[in-house]
TrEMBL record:
GO terms for cellular component: plasma membrane. It is a multi-pass membrane protein. This is YitT family protein. Signal peptide: none annotated. It comes from Paenibacillus donghaensis. The lineage of its organism: Bacteria, Bacillati, Bacillota, Bacilli, Bacillales. The keyword Transmembrane helix applies. Pfam families: YitT_membrane. The chain crosses the membrane at residues 12-31, 51-73, 80-97, 112-131, 152-174, 180-200. It is found in: Cell membrane.
Amino acid sequence: MRKHKNGVHALLRLTVILFGTFLLAFTYYHINYQNHLTEGGFVGLSLLGKYVLGISPSITILVLDIPVLLIAMFYKGKTFVCHTFISVGAFTLFYGLMERYSGFVINLQDNLPLAALLSGILTGLGAGMVLRGGGASGGDDILSLLISEWKGIKVGTVFIIMDVVVLALSLFYMPLKETMYTVMAVVVAGYVITFTTSLGRPKLVKVPKLQKKLGQAQDVH
């Protein structure tokens, strides 16, 4: 009976992760890319590669994520990394299929505020679902989660800070108008992520487990 309950719980977590990942891939391709909005974090860097070098984000994401996943193996454990690998692999598959086969177009270039709002809500919800499922949707999510646990800062706040850095780089190739609307999307996503991950959970403490692990690692040296 206990094994059955654990199996159902694991299947539910996997379903949440896959749905969140699908939501991210759908939003990044059909809203951000199709309406010339960029994005923060590693996805923003991958979109930068798409706009400037023509490299598919499905490839760039893997190149950026793998080193961070190896770091997460040490601090977050194998289960977390396994869930993240599933999310990253699913994102690569979902985005690649949409990029190649999807004929669905969401043209909101005449209404960029709406595009930014939808992007923020959907990406925030998708990333939050993956985190609630026990994984991360990418390397930047992992870094944000680690920093959040280490410093006791809301994970959505860390997302916003990291994304703004990437968006500053976007000014080299993106018009100011699109960049500012992307900032709007990032801020909305940050709040949605915080809401999704904290709903029904106690507030983040200021002395997290990660901090203890870091201290132990320093003592060894």
